[in-house]
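R.M. (postdoc): so does anyone remember the format we settled on? I'll just put the structure tokens first.
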């Protein structure tokens, strides 16, 4: 059974329909990418899962049961719009937020201290939030989101404002949290991070879900049977119209690099055998679409439907 399910969730604000029968399933101990352009409905869905907003119809199930406001203690939510009290001391605020999630004062202090040391901000415990750089404030927000070890973590643009070193630090922590049992919903516009982190994705556009599934399965679904071949030869290869189409050919550092499309009744092994008879093959790989390519294609397609 998935940890989280939304079933035909619908939400309107007056005449505007923010969500139209959106259903997702988030498997336990997975990283689930919730994708979509601005205004697609992602944040509305996240707010409904967190019981911040009420749905008009449909169901949200956590562990197979209808979610209630009390279940928010089992959820850690890092919103895109961050919000710490600027005048409070960092440690005091972190303690307050950890105890709001049901932690004892002793456990909150112990766990927070460990996280602060791990993120190298231990010396800021007694400083006011307004004295921290944006990056350090982001680290504090991440810590208070995860410190109570929730079953479900929801990160909305978690890398916003971070330099590459701290992005990698957060990625490592997200993987670690997943490995220790957390289930994670990850919402972002950075498709490279989606490909690196996520197991499954759902793409929402114009309030409806238009694509969902396991990442590798989706990529294979959209592949175009195009291969990139690098070879060494005094002359260009000839395909002789044998079920293969040469899309491009250029010379790079003394070698030829060709892109070749295989027709449906032929195989990559047959192409390779044809090429080996003509040249020394130094590279042979299938050109797969990126999640970014698929995202743009599906959103643009959806505009015209």
């Amino acid at each position: 059974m998935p940890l989280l399910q939304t079933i035909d969730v619908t939400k309107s604000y007056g005449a505007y329909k923010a969500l139209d029968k959106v259903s997702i399933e988030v498997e336990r101990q997975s990283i689930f990418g919730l994708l979509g352009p601005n205004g697609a409905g992602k944040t509305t869905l996240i707010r409904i899962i967190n019981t911040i907003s009420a749905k008009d119809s449909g169901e949200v199930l956590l562990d197979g049961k209808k979610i209630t406001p009390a279940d928010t203690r089992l959820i850690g939510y890092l919103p895109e719009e961050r919000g710490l009290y600027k005048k409070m001391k960092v440690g005091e605020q972190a303690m307050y937020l950890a105890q709001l999630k049901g932690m004892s004062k002793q456990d909150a202090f112990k766990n927070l201290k460990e996280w602060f040391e791990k993120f190298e901000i231990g010396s800021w415990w007694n400083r006011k939030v307004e004295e921290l750089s944006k990056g350090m404030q982001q680290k504090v927000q991440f810590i208070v989101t995860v410190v109570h070890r929730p079953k479900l973590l929801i990160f909305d643009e978690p890398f916003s404002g971070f330099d590459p070193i701290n992005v990698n630090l957060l990625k490592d922590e997200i993987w670690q949290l997943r490995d220790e049992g957390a289930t994670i919903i990850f919402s972002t516009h950075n498709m490279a991070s989606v490909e690196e982190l996520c197991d499954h994705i759902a793409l929402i556009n114009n309030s409806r879900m238009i694509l969902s599934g396991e990442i590798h399965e989706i990529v294979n679904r959209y592949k175009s049977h195009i291969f990139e071949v690098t070879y060494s030869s005094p002359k260009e290869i000839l395909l002789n119209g044998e079920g293969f189409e040469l899309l491009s050919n250029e010379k790079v550092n003394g070698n030829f690099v060709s892109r070749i499309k295989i027709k449906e009744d032929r195989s990559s092994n047959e192409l390779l055998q044809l090429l080996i008879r003509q040249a020394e093959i130094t590279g042979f790989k299938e050109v797969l679409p990126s999640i970014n390519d698929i995202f743009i294609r599906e959103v643009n397609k959806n505009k015209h439907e």
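R.M.: ...and that's the designed sequence above, right after the tokens. Also worth knowing: The chain has a mean pLDDT of 92. The radius of gyration is 24 Å.
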